[in-house]
Amino acid sequence: MAAPLVTETARAKINLCLHVTGRRADGYHLLDSLVGFADFGDEIIVAPAKTLSLRIEGPHAQGLSAGDDNLVLRAARFLDPHGTAQITLIKRLPVASGIGGGSADAAATLRALARLWNMPLPAPEQVAILGADVPACLMGLPLRMQGIGDVLRAAPPIPALDVLLVNPGVAVATPAVFSGLRDKENPALSSNWPPFEDAKGFCNWLACQRNDLQPPAIVLAPAIGTALGLLQDTGCLFAGMSGSGATCFALYPPDGHSARAAKAQVNARQPHWWAVNSKLS
């Protein structure tokens, strides 16, 4: 009988808005962000083995190291320093693109190995040592992230929405984006959020929020501005940049065809860009 496999999806994390509210004495920036997740991402597959190993495959595997410092292996050792498994990472998300790929991979590894090894999952606050976004990715539901990403609160339910993710294929270094931020103390999100009754109302609320990292990211990579303009031309309900870029997103009614038509429009104008349709949750 073939050895059992356990599979987990490392869903893309989307910063639907991101306010930079200050900077600590140690240099870490304070954030206030509404986070959602796409129903698309990398894939983690684990199987029993006599040693712990990692293989990386997929369209965005090139250049990634499967060495001991890989976050997937670090997550495995965190869960059980003596645990063994063959781990396969199928890399479908662009690397370092503002959608939490590495953190999502670590969280999916924790979920998969906990099932394989019949162990309880650690609490989200325990895994922050692996990275600021790992706790949110482990929870995998709409969240309000504050502090340096370590303060997590459940967000009001997000209405059903289709999402189009687009990356223009440019690399943007997060430290450089933060260095280009002119004002590091900006207003936080409102304490009283309205009930998000429908997709249009939610997107109207998003339009009143910000991603404070978007302007400096566009200065560093003007293609981000081009991507946002192209997405807005598709007639979306809202378009924005996730994290520090360069991935942008556009939201559409959950009708099953608006987002697909938008993707076709993007592909026609920018055939070499990465573009994926998904659902927002």
General description of the model:
27% of the residues lie in helices and 29% in strands. It has helices spanning 71-79, 101-116, 134-139, 174-179, 199-206, 214-220, 222-232, 258-269; strands at 6-23, 29-47, 52-57, 85-90, 143-147, 151-154, 161-167, 238-241, 248-252, 274-280. Strands 1, 2, 3, 4, 5 and 6 form a 6-stranded mixed β-sheet that branches. Strands 8-9-7-10 form a 4-stranded antiparallel β-sheet, with helices on both faces. β1 and β2 (29-47) form a beta hairpin. The protein is globular, with a radius of gyration of 19 Å.
Q: Please report the first level of CATH classification, the CATH class of the largest domain.
A: Alpha Beta
Count of DSSP strands: 10
Count every helix, treating DSSP H or I runs of 4 or more residues as helices. Answer: 8
Which class do the helix and strand fractions yield? alpha+beta
Mean pLDDT across all amino acids? 95
- The gross shape turns out to be globular
> Which stretches of 5+ consecutive residues score pLDDT under 50?
none
What fold name goes in the CATH topology slot of the largest domain?
A: Ribosomal Protein S5, domain 2
Radius of gyration: 19 Å
- Note the beta-strand portion: 25-35%
Largest sheet, strands/sense/barrel: 6 strands, mixed
Summarize the amount of helix as a percent range.
Answer: 25-40%
How far apart are the first and last residues' alpha carbons, in Å?
37 Å
The secondary-structure element order is: EEEHEHHEEEHHHHEEHE
CATH architectural grouping of the largest domain: 2-Layer Sandwich
Number of domains: 2
